[in-house]
Amino acid sequence: MTENKPKPEVIPPTGIRFQLACLNDSYVVGRMAFLTKLSKLILPAGHWGGIDRSAGNQDPEQTSKPPLYLTFDDGPHPNTTPYLIELLEAAGVKGTFFLIGENVERYPDLVKQLHDAGHVIANHSYGHKFMPALKTSTIEREIVKMNDSVAAITEGAPTLFRPPYGLMDKRVAACLREQEMTAVYWGSASEDWLLPGADSVVRRVMRNMRPGLLIVLHEGALLKNQTVTAAKEIMFRSRDLGYQMQKVEVPA
Ligand SMILES: [Zn+2]
Fold first, then answer.
1. Residue 192 lies in a domain
2. Comparing C-alpha atoms, which of 40, 44, 46 is closest to residue 168?
3. Each residue of 97-136: pLDDT tens digit?
4. Ligand 1 center to residue 74 CA distance, Å?
5. What backbone torsions phi and psi does residue 97 show, to the nearest 5 degrees?
6. pLDDT tens, 209-244?
7. 209: domain range?
8. Residues 73, 74, 192, 199: which is the catalytic one?
9. For the chain, what is the domain count?
10. Residue 195 lies in a domain
């Protein structure tokens, strides 16, 4: 018997630490479910995931697998984007990246790489501000300036928009209509921005697993290990359950 066993990286599925982690997950999952329900009532119309059977997505022979949508917010960032591109490439999965305009201008090469790899580049505003607090003219600038920053690199502007902090108002909705864009919200937010660790993120997302789930993970300087590890694990586990990752594509 060796005395110096390496510390396990993953919490074993027994013991008090695991029980406490699960309890905390239940609290977070419950809180997010409540906030999502409330948000669906008060936010302007938009895409919440699920399977849109009215848009010609019926599958009478049920040959296709139920979809899931893997989305990443706040990029691009050199600590996450290149690793996610590599991971998704290896898994044959296309993701949807809600980028911040300021980061697009800072890291244009990463935007080009995302575009060339066939991922969807979407709008998460130019400066990641809390939209309802902005003047209408600033709201327009936040959306249009971000689109312009992408168009300068990929020659195509995003058509999907996810509001920073998940909140927007009627003025933002009007601006999106004018730009022929669609709001995309979320189905499962794991509070990964609080850095709970990849294990927690995976457990929280898997507890929400259902056809058409819109999964949100975050990019950023501190998120490399957590986001890349969680994305990998979620892809493998959901594939084992018979799901198929797809790009977010919403008809205008
Ligand atoms: Zn964000």
1. yes
2. 44
3. 999 999 999 999 999 999 999 999 999 999 999 999 999 9
4. 5
5. -110, 110
6. 999 999 999 999 999 899 999 999 999 999 999 999
7. 21-50+65-246
8. 73
9. 1
10. yes
